[in-house]
Design a protein that fits this description.
Layout lengths: L1 H5 L3 E14 L12 E13 L3 H12 L2 H7 L10
Antiparallel strand pairs: 1-2
Length: 82
């Protein structure tokens, strides 16, 4: 949507995601120090004749999307019988 509004030549986006469980002690930049953590790797491919500044701006926006925010914030799950 952003690229369309700016009339940038974005032709498509490809995303590859992988998920791993890692020991917290093996993660140097994580807040959690004990137990296991979920680690996700996302590789984005931006297709089109974009300049480096446009690519960087689209990456900034990707980090602020609602799904990214949900996955990087603390999540509470409450389960009850209906």
């Amino acid at each position: 949507m952003y690229a369309d509004r700016k009339e940038w030549p974005l032709e498509g986006v490809e995303m590859r995601l992988s998920h791993n469980r890692i020991h917290a002690k093996d993660c140097a930049d994580c807040e959690t120090e004990k137990g296991m953590l979920d680690e996700m790797h996302v590789d984005l491919t931006l297709k089109g004749d974009l300049d480096p500044a446009q690519r960087e701006r689209l990456m900034d926006i990707a980090h602020r999307c609602p799904v990214h925010k949900t996955l990087t914030n603390e999540i509470k799950i409450r389960v009850s019988l209906a």
